[in-house]
Design goal:
Structural class: alpha+beta
CATH architecture of the largest domain: 2-Layer Sandwich
Shape: rod-shaped
Distance between the termini: 92 Å
Strand order of the largest sheet: 5-4-8-7-6
Strand content: 25-35%
Number of domains: 3
Number of strands: 13
Radius of gyration: 36 Å
């Protein structure tokens, strides 16, 4: 552009960006050609100020500004302007790059990030090495790890040992571009507590369409799973009782059914014995471990007063009870997973 504000040169890249040919652009005033109407007077004032003072606040700086295409659409450009003296008169060279799509992508990413952060679901992403790369606020709440603690760690930190094969199979499907929808599994919290979760896993692709990672959306379904198990157990126990004449016939089966619903190691039925003046253990079921067997044998020898011991306290309160044991003598089988302490439960009928 010369000192009069007219275009002196218009290269092929300018033709592609703005839609004018060189012959159409050269000789026209720049303000009328590619500057939106609301900015034209400011442009002319800036040029006049430079010609009068030799100072231009925008010279030598990279700015972002709106520009006008031939079809009337506005685009956003990154602009840098230099001034050069030729034969005593200034020539201005403007270097422009269309950044419209880049800014749209950045805005879309910001909106997506805001949606992810405010989502009620735990959302995380991992690369193909199964390393966690992003972690939203709900993931922090659900699993107990902050983003700073977990980012860069393998996703297997959350996966119990007996579920590792599942994780490998999911990642293999992701590498082939498949999605995994509503897959229910178990992950572990930072404190070791297992969580029943519903997962949706989708591949993340680069600009070329190659899979470079996976996004995971996790929802806590622990209460729903517990309710489903409880209903299934109640149904199974009801069928056992309906098909028997006495409790003794099906007591062991009932205990096994209840224990398997929670993956417990030991279950017992205590009955009040008037002659003994307390509660006596009458029926047990336990997993085939020697120390659990010893515990079962000892249980048969004990008479508990109405208010003592776990059975006595449940009998006395006449309400279901649940205790969290800091050092439970009978850890569940899945307690081997990172030393978690699991609850043991007893219900009174």
């Amino acid at each position: 552009m010369d000192a009069t504000g007219c275009i002196r040169e218009f290269n092929p890249a300018s033709e592609r960006v703005f839609g004018f040919t060189r012959s159409e652009a050269v000789g026209k005033e720049l303000a009328d050609l590619i500057i939106p109407p609301r900015f034209r007077e400011r442009h002319r004032q800036g040029l006049a100020h430079y010609l009068k003072t030799g100072q231009g606040p925008l010279l030598g700086k990279l700015i972002e500004i709106a520009a006008l295409r031939r079809d009337g659409t506005e685009i956003l450009v990154a602009l840098a302007i230099n001034a050069t003296e030729i034969d005593g008169s200034p020539i201005f060279t403007a270097y422009l790059r269309d950044i419209t799509e880049q800014k749209r992508a950045e805005e879309a990413n910001r909106r997506l990030a805001a949606i992810i952060e405010s989502s009620g679901d735990a959302i995380m992403s991992i690369n193909l090495d199964e390393t966690i790369t992003t972690w939203n606020k709900e993931a922090e709440r659900l699993f107990g790890y902050t983003a700073a603690e977990i980012t860069g760690k393998p996703i297997t930190v959350l996966v119990p040992p007996d579920r590792q094969t599942e994780e490998l199979e999911i990642m293999e499907r992701i590498r082939h571009g498949e999605r995994v929808i509503r897959y229910e599994t178990v992950h572990g919290r930072k404190d070791g507590t297992p969580l029943d979760i519903s997962l949706a896993v989708s591949p993340i692709n680069d600009e070329s369409g190659h899979v470079i990672g996976a996004s995971k959306i996790a929802r806590d379904v622990t209460e729903r799973v517990r309710t489903d198990r409880r209903r299934a157990t109640q149904y199974a126990v009801t069928n056992l009782l309906a098909g028997s004449w006495t409790l003794a016939e099906v007591a062991t089966q009932i205990l096994e059914t209840i224990a398997s619903s929670g993956d417990w190691a030991f279950a017992a039925i205590w009955i009040y014995d008037r002659a003994a003046g307390g509660l006596r253990c009458r029926y047990v079921w336990h997993e085939p471990a020697e120390r659990v067997k010893k515990f079962a044998d000892l249980s048969f020898l004990i008479t508990l007063p109405e208010s003592q011991g776990l059975p006595g306290r449940v009998w006395n309160s006449k309400k279901p009870a649940r205790w969290i044991c800091l050092s439970p003598p009978l850890p569940r089988r899945d307690q081997q997973y990172n030393g978690a302490v699991q609850p043991q439960c007893c219900r009174a009928r």
